[in-house]
Amino acid sequence: MLIATASEEQSHVAREVDRNLVNIQDLSTQTAAGAHQTSASSQELSRLAISFNDLVGRFKV
Fold first, then answer.
1. Is the pLDDT of residue 60 over 90?
2. What's the sign of the alpha-carbon dihedral 24, 28, 30, 34?
3. Does pTM top 0.85 for this prediction?
């Protein structure tokens, strides 16, 4: 009976590890998507800053 119990515990731990790995994979995918969005937003902000700087440069006294 002891071997069966240990085997069940190992099986439970293996399933838990598998679930945790899936969660890590999902979070990694979300992090990558967030990083991509941040990069796109930063590029757009840079473009707007350059445009703004150009417009301000036209109003020199």
1. no
2. positive
3. no
Locate 4 and state its tokens.
């069966």
Q: Distances from the Cα of 37 to the Cαs of 43, 44, 46, in angstroms? A: 10, 11, 14
Instruction: Return the structure tokens found at 42.
Output: 């930063």
Cα(7)–Cα(15) distance, rounded to whole angstroms? Answer: 12
Tokens representing 16? 């838990």
Range list of H helices, 1-61 = 2-57
Cα 33 from Cα 20, distance rounded (Å): 20
DSSP 60: -
